[in-house]
Amino acid sequence: MQNVKLILTDIEGTTSSISFVKDVLFPYAAEHLPDYVREHLDDDIVQSALKQTAELAAAEGNDIDPADVSQLIDQLQTWIAKDSKATPLKTLQGLIWEAGYQNGDYAAHMYPDATQHLEKWYDEELPVYVYSSGSVKAQKLFFGYSQDGDLLSLFSGHFDTLMGHKREAQSYLNILAELQKTHEGLQASDVLFLSDIKEELDAAKEAGMQTCWVIRDTELPTDAAHKAVSDFADI
């Protein structure tokens, strides 16, 4: 890695285990969603999410009575089972996860080497940004309630799929354009992107960024198109 002026990092599988999201957060949201929705029907955000649920379901060919809360909850649970990225589901999941974090029901997993180096880069005044498929709100909850404490101050900013899909080069160009608003003269080659997904790294590399493939649970490839590491110490 040469002349890195800014780091852009993924979360799941990179700074943190995939299993925390898969085995803790998603089941928690599925379990608590029915009660949460019914207990917060007067909440404007919940009402908006339910309205969007009915509209999106109709667009998918499933007409639901917008006033039938049980049907709306069933639709949301169907999307959870399918790992859908439906916007109203993401909104409600974020609200439920926030309650879980605040209640102390869980804390976000962090790899020790990731926390150590995030703190090191912060001390070195090397800006670190997050790019994840999870919403910016979910990202901030994740790092704000981590097992290593509140790590939010270590990051200079957050990006989600409003920038585009993570496997498309244009998304990284969109992020670069946003970064250049606060980092004058920043070039794509000044940015190092960290991820555990090869296709995301391919897209970032196509956009001109430096890349590093973080592989936690399997052997490192010997002929990879990206520098591969198993520990942040080797980046």
Question: Main β-sheet: number of strands, strand sense, barrel status?
Answer: 6 strands, parallel
How would you write the strand order of the largest sheet? 3-2-1-4-5-6
CATH architectural category of the largest domain: 3-Layer(aba) Sandwich
CATH superfamily of the largest domain: HAD superfamily/HAD-like
According to CATH, what is the class of the largest domain?
Answer: Alpha Beta
Return the average pLDDT rounded to an integer: 94
Query: Domains counted in the coordinates: how many?
Result: 2
Number of strands: 6
Tally of helical runs: 8
Inertia-based shape: globular
Stated plainly, the CATH topology of the largest domain is called: Rossmann fold
Q: How do the SSEs run, as a string of H and E?
A: EHHHHHEHEHEHEE
Give the low-pLDDT segments.
none
Helical content (DSSP H or I, runs of 4+): 40-55%
Specify Rg, calculated over alpha carbons.
19 Å
Termini Cα gap: 7 Å
Which structural category fits the helices and strands? Answer: alpha/beta
Describe, in short, the structure shown.
The protein has helices spanning 18-39, 44-59, 69-81, 87-103, 112-123, 136-144, 169-179, 198-206; strands at residues 6-9, 128-131, 157-159, 191-195, 210-214, 227-229.
Task: Describe the model.
- This protein is α/β, with parallel strands linked by helices and 235 residues long.
- It folds into two domains: 6-16 and 108-234, Rossmann fold; 21-103, Transcription Termination Factor Rho, Rna-binding Domain, Chain A, Domain 1 (Orthogonal Bundle), CATH 1.10.720.
- 46% of the residues lie in helices and 10% in strands.
- It has eight helices and six strands, in the order E-H-H-H-H-H-E-H-E-H-E-H-E-E.
- A six-stranded parallel sheet has the order 3-2-1-4-5-6, with helices on both faces.
- Helix 8 (198-206) links the parallel strand 4 and strand 5.
- The model has no long low-confidence stretch (mean pLDDT 94).
